[in-house]
UniProtKB/TrEMBL annotation:
Keywords: Dioxygenase, Iron, Metal-binding, Oxidoreductase. PANTHER family: BETA-CAROTENE DIOXYGENASE, CAROTENOID CLEAVAGE DIOXYGENASE 4, CHLOROPLASTIC-RELATED. Pfam families: RPE65. InterPro entries: Carotenoid_Oase. Binds 1 Fe(2+) ion per subunit. Its cofactor is Fe(2+). It comes from the Eukaryota. One of its GO terms (molecular function) is metal ion binding. This is Carotenoid cleavage dioxygenase 4 isoform 3. It comes from Bixa orellana. Belongs to the carotenoid oxygenase family. GO terms for biological process: carotene catabolic process. Transmembrane segments: none annotated. The keyword Iron applies.
Length: 590
């Protein structure tokens, strides 16, 4: 074998080995030409096993000079490396890099980026016609929209709430409006001109975030901030009961809002039905349309870790029922009701205050060793003595879509099961649609996967809440809360009986079912007589639309499409208000 040696000014030698045993002029002229290198004389070398596969190797020249272990240059290099190590270690303790999923520069991009408020603006119908039954109604959807850039980490679930509403006037016009929910947190930070309230779900990364938290405590102790006012963003959902329209998040009490005659949104006040430190309520209260009652709960960092309560039809709250059998704080996002019971789902999501206070990330943690449980409590219970817990391995229900009782003393629970629970804060999750059946007499439990498709944000005909229903509508999840389409599931067979994808580059959010009002003298008869509605955004054209789809159609055909005056960011949960509900809000608005 022959070796061409090519030396470089950088102090490296490139050896080119040719398999032929004869050196020829053509071979030498065919060598790769490297202008900055000089070709050294040809050196014939012996064949060696370690050179057989070698075509080009860079061999560094060995320095002939060696430094004494105690020479000044050695000590200087050692001191430099030690200084760099200490500085890097201290920086990682004080202010380490934050994770991409809580980095505002990566979270608040595209249609996740915030928008400015917009007053009432009329929107054109660009496809089809609005159904007459929508006249005099309204649709409101909540979502995160930070007014100020966070100082450090931001979990998208924690930003300031903004309501995006469409008011359908009596003469068929669509009026869009978007306003911040003016929470205590929103007002404090707007006054300060900076995002000063820590994001607990995003967590603390390093001592700098922990120090800011103690700075917040100092302001509270000096009376500059009030924990009695809460620090939530009211960004998750919208609810109506007790003649009150509310914006909610589970870390605070609801904020009462209203929709004006011209379609604008106004924040009235925080609903202080519970005067306690850092009082809160679920963002998913349940409403029984037959009894006009509402049911809710709150979870806590300290015992009791779960508390259930209900409201009568006038919004008067009944006494708390503390769930003392829950032995550790955990994140319970949703629950369900039947005609006789309330159903809680205790998942593997737990709270770790110690982890957060050590600057190691979110207060929410995933405990894979914990076995999920479902708790069933009589809905008019005055204490938790009749609460029954059932272990349901593998079921981490984040949203419970509905539950009902059948004739065999069984309760059936429909929910989306989060299979990748450890990624719940990363926005990319994997789910399945499951139905859990519990025999209240024997304790026998079964779980059936109705759909393996990645579904979330389930919706049903609201008049079937707590009753057996046949159809449910789910968003096809891309990344929370961004969805690529909507699927209609027959709950008796598990089959997909309706489906619509929004198209390349177009994404929506939660689909909401709206019952048909009497149209052309005919009243709705079937459970799925109605429409599915959702905001949809085209990321290629930067255009947002509001779609009204036929809930009975196998293709969920578009009945009407409204062009929005600007993009509508991806958001969370919405609410449809009937004519009667909208008039009740305005009558009882102070």
């Amino acid at each position: 074998m022959y070796c061409y040696s090519i030396s470089s000014p950088a102090g490296a030698t490139i050896a080119y080995h040719e398999k032929t045993s004869i050196y020829t002029k053509e071979t030498r002229e065919g060598m790769p030409k490297i202008p900055s290198f000089g070709i050294l004389p040809l050196i014939k070398t012996q064949q060696a096993s370690h050179l057989r596969k070698l075509r080009m190797t860079i061999v560094k020249k060995q320095s002939t000079k060696t430094s004494s272990p105690l020479s000044p240059s050695f000590l200087s290099a050692l001191a430099s490396k030690a200084s760099h190590f200490i500085h890097s270690s201290i920086s990682n303790v004080i202010s380490p890099p934050i994770q991409p999923w809580v980095d505002p520069d990566q979270v608040l991009t595209g249609n996740f980026a915030p928008v400015e408020e917009m007053g009432p603006t009329e929107c054109p119908v660009v496809e089809g016609q609005l159904p007459p039954s929508l006249n005099g109604t309204a649709y409101l959807r909540n979502g995160s929209n930070p007014q100020l850039r966070p100082r450090r980490a931001l979990q998208y679930f924690e930003a300031d709430g903004m309501i995006h509403s469409l008011h359908f006037s009596s003469d068929g016009r669509a009026i869009y409006s978007s306003r911040y929910v003016e929470t205590y947190k929103y007002k404090i930070e707007r006054k300060n001109g900076a995002a000063t309230i820590p994001n607990f779900m995003a967590g603390f990364y390093g001592l700098i975030d922990v120090a800011r938290f103690f700075g917040l405590l100092g302001q509270i102790l000096r009376g500059r901030l009030s924990v009695m006012e809460g620090f939530g963003g009211a960004n998750t959902s919208v609810a109506f009961f007790g003649k009150k329209l509310m914006a909610l998040c589970e870390s605070d009490l609801p904020y009462i809002i209203t929709l004006t005659e011209d379609g604008d949104i106004k924040t009235l006040k925080r609903w202080d039905f519970d005067r306690r430190v850092m009082a809160n309520m679920t963002a998913h209260p349940k409403f029984d349309e037959d009894t006009k009652e509402a049911f809710a709960f709150r979870y806590n960092m300290f015992c009791p870790f779960l508390t259930f309560f209900r409201f009568d039809e006038n919004g008067v709250k009944h006494e708390d029922v503390n769930i003392t059998s829950l032995k550790q704080p955990c994140l319970i996002h949703d629950f369900a009701i039947t005609k006789r019971f309330v159903v809680f789902d205790e998942t593997q999501l737990v709270f770790s205050v110690a982890k957060m206070m050590l600057g190691r990330g979110s207060i929410v943690d995933h405990n894979p060793k914990k076995i999920p449980r479902i708790g069933v409590l009589p809905r008019y219970a005055t204490n938790d003595s009749d609460l029954k817990w059932f272990y349901v391995p593998g079921f981490n229900g984040f949203h419970l879509v509905n539950a009902w009782e059948n004739e065999e003393d069984e309760i059936e629970i429909l929910g989306t099961n989060v299979l990748s629970l450890g990624n719940i804060l990363v926005k990319r999750v994997t789910t399945s649609l499951d139905k859990v059946t519990i025999n209240m007499q024997t304790g026998e439990i079964s779980r059936k996967v109705l759909s393996p498709r990645n579904l979330e944000f389930g919706a049903i005909n609201s008049s079937y809440a707590g009753k057996r229903n046949r159809y449910a509508y789910f968003a096809v999840m891309e990344e929370v809360p961004k969805t690529s389409g909507v699927v209609k599931i027959d709950l008796e067979t598990g089959r997909e009986v309706g489906i619509r994808f929004y198209g390349v580059g177009s994404f929506g959010g939660e689909p909401l079912f709206v019952r048909k009002d009497a149209e052309n003298g005919a009243s709705p008869v079937d459970e799925d007589d109605g429409y599915v509605i959702s905001y949809v955004h085209n990321e290629n054209t930067e255009e947002s639309r509001f779609l009204v789809m036929d809930a009975k159609s196998p293709e969920l055909e578009i009945v009407a499409a409204i062009k929005m005056p600007r993009r509508v960011p991806y958001g969370f949960h919405g609410l449809f208000l009937s004519k009667e509900e909208l008039s009740n809000i305005r009558v009882h608005t102070p």
